[in-house]
Write a structure and sequence with these properties.
The chain is an alpha+beta fold. It contains ten helices and nine strands. Helix 2 runs antiparallel to helix 5. Keywords: Signal.
Length: 280
Amino acid sequence: MQTKLRIYSIFWSLALLCLVPACGPSESTGMREVLAVSDNLTPEMEITALRRAVAMYGHRGYTPDSQLGFEATWNDWQEAEVLSLFEAMDTSDYHISCGPMSYLLRDVYRALGYPAATYNFGFSNTSFTHEVTFVQLPDGRVSWQDATFNTQLLGADGELLDAFEWLSGERQGSFQEDTTWVRLLVDASVLTDSHCQPVFVGEQVGELASGVLEFDFRVSFSSNVYDPCYGFMTKLHEELDTAISYHQLARMRISDLLGAPDWQERVGQITLEPVDQSGD
């Protein structure tokens, strides 16, 4: 009998689970084949399709000591070729956080000729951080692509919005709803009864020999970020007792945009708003 996942109180973090050298031009054809992305798309369509493909590769989960974590499974991942990683991920049991996910997507873009970097933001040294990928289109726009929540930033016209224009408040934007389902791997020891069922967790579909349970996991921006039980922003408001928007959180840059000095200068000019955590 299939059973619904019962989430332990600390397990909300799987919704946000958050440096590989770029591969050479000769791997671009193999990259598209592995990710099942057509080679005749416009840049906007290709950037979107690549993010969707990477999102589907990323199993989510929680295991004690992260024994099935991406970094533990491939401890040399920062030196590995990204194409070989995807080929290994295709047949492996693991779960991945937003950091490595953003770097994998960055290197996919770079392999296909798009300038790309990662952007890390949130409350430093807490669970409330997130990392996404910035990628430049031929017309100069820098697109916000998030493989962890399977979303991208759009303007009012439905086109990809420049991330810096949104961060600075120059233009309004919204995050696209783009739903996919992936594997969720959870150690049975962290499960207990809960009065609140997150919408992003589906039925149990299996169990690994190690005692790790497998569930369907719904990846979409609204459910992962705003789920009333365990959404990223829901838990932030509860645990930090502060009212803050996702836009405000996104302006709280944690680290530099490595390898992108021009973008670093642009983001450095954006005033990061102080956030009062006192609850007053």
